[in-house]
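Consider the tokenized backbone below.
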């Protein structure tokens, strides 16, 4: 199934390249999107995240030319753009798809890639803007192409950090390190436990083929006022300050519970405590999940996922009725129906859920999720299943 999708994407990309540029491409690279199994809203607290690469990726087909520019067609955008190979061209005011590409080219050149003129076709089967990090997969794919065309190797961690800079500077999005790390360093049959403070990844085997990851898109995205994320961050920072540490990562659950009153006051009520309780508890859950996954203790993994969801819904307050419905439906199917665990994934207020499911029941579970979601919410959910996939590579 997944192999078929990949082959289709690859063939289409090659075909488009021939159509646009008249010859077969010399170089092909791919970089995947990702899903976070657990560890939500922990990155900016210096905590842990636990993503894996998915079997959806961005493929780029390219050939060097004698020109001094790059001509790049994005099949997803249905648009072609010309890029100057000058790293000192400032980022465009308005962020567009070209911003990600220009940024990855520019920073690669700054890092020493001797990039010739080239033609390229970009083609992705990661849904754009669907919370599965099509943007990181694009950045990492372009950076991988720059290594190939530019005769250098950045090293995977360096490449990921460079792509994070692309997102910060060129896409003007203050993201953490997770998306670019997992797209660059992901490995087939492994999830990645990433310590966001030390930036040290640990690859955790996820080899049991009888378990798959089912991603369900609620296809809703709630309008935000803009104050939601800053409030969560500010609350975490204030909580850390009251505990005398720089990051909530350094407060243990015991410490937090023993000195709960530090975070409760007339102005905030128990809001600061709830935010901190999520962030601190989520680190505990994430570490527990990684340990349990190592030994195939699926019951524990599932329990942590549900607990994560409840915490994000009740204490961090970043869920929404549609996502809650999807998790509730999955929970009702339960272990006997093949569902191990389920939770919201991504920043919140819509987007996707991630569920661990028995591979042989995945179609049936997807059917029930869609049917029940339609009944309860009146909207169509979309699903796809995946196993942990390979990170960026030259094909
Ligand atoms: P997500 O990363 O969750 O998919 P983002 O909003 O961060 O959502 O990134 C989506 C944006 O990334 C798109 O709007 C587009 O500008 C750019 N992008 C991603 N994939 C491609 C692609 N294949 N071709 C062109 N632009 C892309
Ligand atoms: Mg993104």
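A designed sequence for it:
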């Amino acid at each position: 199934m997944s192999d078929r999708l990949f082959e289709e994407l690859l063939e289409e990309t090659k075909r488009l390249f021939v159509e646009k540029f008249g010859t077969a491409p010399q170089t092909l690279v791919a970089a995947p999107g990702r899903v976070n199994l657990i560890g939500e809203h922990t990155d900016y607290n210096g905590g842990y995240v636990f993503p894996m690469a998915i079997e959806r990726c961005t493929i780029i087909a390219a050939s060097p030319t004698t020109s001094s520019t790059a001509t790049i067609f994005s099949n997803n955008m249905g648009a072609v753009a010309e890029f100057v190979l000058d790293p000192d061209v400032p980022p465009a005011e308005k962020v567009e798809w070209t911003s990600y590409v220009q940024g990855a080219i520019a920073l690669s050149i700054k890092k020493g890639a001797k990039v010739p003129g080239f033609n390229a076709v970009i083609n992705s089967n990661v849904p754009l803007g669907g919370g599965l990090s099509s943007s990181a997969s694009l950045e990492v794919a372009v950076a991988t192409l720059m290594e190939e065309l530019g005769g250098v190797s950045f090293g995977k961690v360096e490449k990921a950090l460079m792509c994070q800079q692309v997102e910060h500077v060129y896409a003007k999005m203050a993201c953490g390190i997770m998306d670019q790390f997992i797209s660059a360093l992901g490995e087939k049959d492994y999830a990645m436990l990433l310590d966001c403070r030390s930036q040290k990844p640990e690859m955790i085997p996820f080899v049991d083929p009888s378990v798959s990851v089912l991603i369900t898109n609620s296809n809703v995205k709630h309008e935000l006022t803009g104050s939601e994320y800053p409030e969560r961050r500010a609350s975490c920072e204030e909580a850390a300050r009251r505990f005398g540490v720089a990051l909530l990562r350094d407060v243990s659950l015991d410490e937090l519970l023993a000195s709960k009153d530090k975070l409760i006051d007339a102005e905030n009520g128990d809001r600061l405590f709830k935010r901190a309780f999520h962030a601190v508890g989520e680190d505990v859950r994430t570490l527990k999940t990684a340990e349990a996954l190592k030994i195939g203790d699926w019951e524990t993994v599932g329990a942590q996922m549900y607990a994560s969801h409840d915490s994000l819904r009740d204490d961090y307050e970043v869920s929404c009725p549609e996502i809650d419905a999807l998790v509730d439906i999955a929970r009702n199917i339960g272990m006997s129906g093949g569902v191990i665990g389920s939770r919201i994934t991504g920043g919140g207020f819509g987007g996707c859920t991630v569920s661990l499911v028995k591979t042989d029941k995945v179609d049936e579970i997807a059917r029930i999720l869609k049917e029940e979601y339609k009944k309860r919410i009146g909207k169509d959910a979309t699903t796809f299943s995946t196993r942990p996939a390979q990170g960026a590579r030259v094909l």
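The CA atoms of residues 252 and 303 lie 20 Å apart.
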